[in-house]
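User: Teach me something about this protein's shape.
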Amino acid sequence: MRYAFKKKQKKLSLIKQLLLFLAASVILLLGIVTKLPIYDVASAAMTMQLPLSTLGAKIIDAEGEVVLLRGVNWFGIETELHAPHGLWKRDYQEMLVEIRKLGYNLIRLPYSVAALRLPDVSGIDFSIGRNSELQGKTPLEVMDVIIQEAERQGLLILLDSHRLNDQRIPELWYGDGFTEVDWIDTWKMLAQRYKNQANVIGADLKNEPHGQASWGTNDLATDWRLAAERVGNAILSVNPNWLIVVEGVENNVPGQKLKQHWQGGNLEGVKRYPVRLSRPDKLVYSPHEYGPGVYNQPYFSEPDFPKNLSDRWQIGFNYISSEKIAPVLIGEFGGRQVDTISPEGIWQNELVKYIDKNNLSFAYWSWNPNSADTGGILLDDWQSYDLPKQQLLSQLFPSASVQQVEKPNNSAVIPSPTASSVSLMTPQLKVTTDIYSNWETGLCATFKIVNSGNTKVSNWQLKFNMNQAKINNSWNANFTQQGATQYIINPLDWGVVIEPNQSREIGFCAHKLGLDYQIKNVEVIPIQN
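Assistant: First, the predicted structure itself:
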């Protein structure tokens, strides 16, 4: 625990100065040995010092700075494949790079208890990029690799006990051939395994308690609140640094005011029956919230829709935040429609505005496109992303992405990027090129275009050459290959205009076809309309 206080300064004796120097040296040495990761969230102009904890309604870092988690769910380990989905199409590192570059700082990573006890994974093309590193690994070892690479990319991980077996989400925390002891022992194993993996920030204890699950009934067989206390305190006894994330139930809460709730979304019982942990400053509550595309709840057809939504959200979960009981992280929300005409699109727009207004953390469902009723941020080709959906979510964070700042003794684990270069092509526009991820078979790069003039640029185009590499994914612009080596980049509609002192960032990932893969002849040109 850190304390800040003021006191009158006095001259220190030589012995005291020496002791202070030695103490500072020990602290510095400990920081190097433990390799505590520091993450720079450019959009918030702050650094994030792990581990995280809570203060009232806020999640804070080790320096007391407020942290907003902006995450995605990347599912698959909880399914029969026992690995994150999409690795049959893309390299795992490339996926993580894109998650970071789109502005997210967290991955909620579902698993099943069964998967972590089994030896085999499937659904991975080991010939794609660095996926070969996953060959021969168990599901747990695949999780290790994903988490370690996420750390190198500056991404946090929230582990999610999504299923017990690989087939379904159970009502309770036991069943489907598994006991409560199996569930708790799995969490304790993970808490120990990732105790020194600082970017693993916490445990989402059980996905979507529903059906028989209750809250505040004192029935040991069904009271989810009591079970959350048992497993939460067991985890903290092993790893006191983790956040303990507790979802709601569906029904069975004494005195609940709302008739309908989503599975895991009913947190009305927290006020009378709060979760009691040995470390209260590690508790986060996490509702799930969906629209009519998942199930057409009666309140979507009420005459005052969508004005009725904010009252429901306040009663169902947000009073926890507004009354400063604990932070709220919406662990899942999502849907296919993001327009302002369809009921689902209206609901999703209203929720994004609500999250923004109330400074809530979230993890969007899902990164994967193969979620049948919601779709994902990625489209079905697993390469391109749903631009309208990403534009809606980007209202919750600036386009600046999460970047990892240099930490002690990290040169052995972070790939050395090609040095950034700046080309001044006009008095007004500058472009910075950065190959920020560079591995044996691929690379990812960004271009940052800055308007350094006093007038706006109404349109622009960027050109560059790249010989022995082929672009397989890009974002924030349209990339067109012209001839064998030249690329022409035109901005998307929302990025055409660049105001004075404003910037646009675009990027791509590519497979290497030889040693001559460097980016050359970068040129940015303003276009007169």
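Now, about its shape. Residues 55 and 244 are 14 Å apart (CA to CA). The helical segments are 14-34, 92-101, 139-152, 180-193, 224-238, 308-322, 343-358, 387-393. If you'd like, I can walk through any region in more detail.
User: That's plenty for now, thanks!
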